[in-house]
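User: Quick sanity check before I run a bigger batch. Here is a single chain. Can you write out its predicted 3D structure?
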Amino acid sequence: MPRPSGRFRGVVCGLLFAAVVLSDIERLVLPTLKLELQVRYAGAILENLGN
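Assistant: Done. Predicted structure follows.
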């Protein structure tokens, strides 16, 4: 069985790194926006529940 090339390994590691960074950014940003998003979309959610 041939071993994976260094380029393939680099791409996989890069994708894993990008996924971790995006996950951490999401954890930092969403709590900051939580109140604003709740205020903005609470009316729309309540309207849809009434239908």
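The radius of gyration is 20 Å.

User: Great, the batch can go ahead then.
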